[in-house]
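Annotators were shown the component list below and the corresponding predicted structure, then asked to write short factual statements about the assembly.
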Amino acid sequence: MTKADLIESIYEKVGLSKKESSQIVELMFDLIRARLESGGKVKISGFGNFTIREKHVRRGRNPQTGDEIKIAARNVLTFKASPVLKKALNS
Amino acid sequence: MVKSELIQKLSEDASIPPKIAEIAVNTVFSAMTEALMRGEGIEIRGFGSFKVRHYRGRVGNHPRTGTSIEIEPKKRPFFKVGKELRERINGIAPGAIERDAEGAGDE
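Structure shown to annotators:
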């Protein structure tokens, strides 16, 4: 599934033009992305939560050579699926 | 930002009635849910991708009592952030990050 399929489903269900449906899908993901890029969380009830986690510096090992390496502190975006979504997948 | 705020912002920015924005947001997330239920992956350019991982059933140990228990096979959705977004997220100053409040619910 890609954005094109999402645009199609808006076109069918909402009754907007293809162009408007496309703008809405783009805008929706732009809004979500903008919030995350400014450090915020996005919670979509029934689907899941997108949150940013701050990872500390840690020591790791290069699995190929066995050399010890420093893994820099970083921010990662994590998705936690809603129990509703997990249940839907297993029903 | 919760879903209702997304709907409100979408309604404002796209100049569409709130009711239409609500249907649009719900349509998108239910279409995504249905794709995952079919076992289909989702790829959103500039955002990331979703996949379903299958876990085999196994015999595990009950963490508290130590007795062995049967763990049913299950499916779980996974999200992988897109490269560009991952880099932008990584560049956020620590002070700007909204911390996860203890006991924050997820309905």
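Statements collected:
1. Chain A has a mean pLDDT of 94.
2. Chain A touches chain B through 56 residues (CB under 8 Å).
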